[in-house]
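Researcher: Please translate sequence to structure tokens.
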Amino acid sequence: MIDAAKPLPAILYVDDEPTALKYFQRALGAQATVLTAESVEEGKRMLDQHADSIAVLVSDQRMPGAYGNELLFYAWDRYPHIVRILTTAYSEIAHTVEAVNQGQIHRYIQKPWDIASLRMEMKQAVELARLRREHAQLLREKLLIRQKQAVANRIGTLYALCAGVTGSAGTVPIDAYLSAALCAGLTPPEPDWLMMDYSDLISSEAFRSAAFGRLVRIRLDGLAARGAAPADVFGWLAEAFGDGFDRTAEGGTIVHTARLTEFLETPTASAVSDLHAFWLAALLWLGQNGHTLQMSGGPDGVRARLVPAEAAPTPAQLAGWIEQF
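Model: Translation complete:
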């Protein structure tokens, strides 16, 4: 029984024979919304317009201008959630086997159709499409959770790194660092990174964090040896960032904002750059000298202003930072 409260699934049928299109519509009209097209090119346009609602694509093989295989490959490449079925009255065995082997089609149905069998085939194909969509949604939710966990772990690593490098005062720069990252905007990590085996991910993250910590330590030692005043940090930033940093009366503006989010957003296999290590080292050095940077977003980039350092964030405040990401 069809649930009247639910919209009917959509099936796109492509065939150059008007009689076949009408026959297919009459056979399936009670169990699906049937869309039709009379050529491969028209079928492509219909797919592009209705891909979100189409569950199944059925295409005749032999049509003027192009074979149905071309349309099925088009759908396979762009809309993999759609179940693809080939139908023909001809013995196009070579083309059919090729399409099956390449994963372009789910099934092959030969004409003339048996109506009962056709309806059953379409019912099963629609169900398969539904399962694919549910699986894709679950995967998206899993990836989102993995992304949030990874970013939260990295923020925890930053907090520990700050405390480990410079003691309790070193936790102060975490506010400036995370504020700058929020102002810059954080791009979600790459899906390939998120789909790694979890144990491999944890191991790779540990090595990446350790390498980053060593870079930061080296950079911080270099800054400490200069014996400068806190206000000199803007000259250092201008020197390190080059044309990506603009001096202003109040401090400066970081124009190339991606440089502020590298540790949090790049894939685990990507080593963190020396420039990003310098950025955190500069914040740590300021914290050691009783200052920090107040960050704010603007149309020209992320603006930084020198201010006295406040108390280190509490666990609750750090949790609040993590929630914002």
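Researcher: Any highlights?
Model: Residues 37 and 46 are 7 Å apart (CA to CA).
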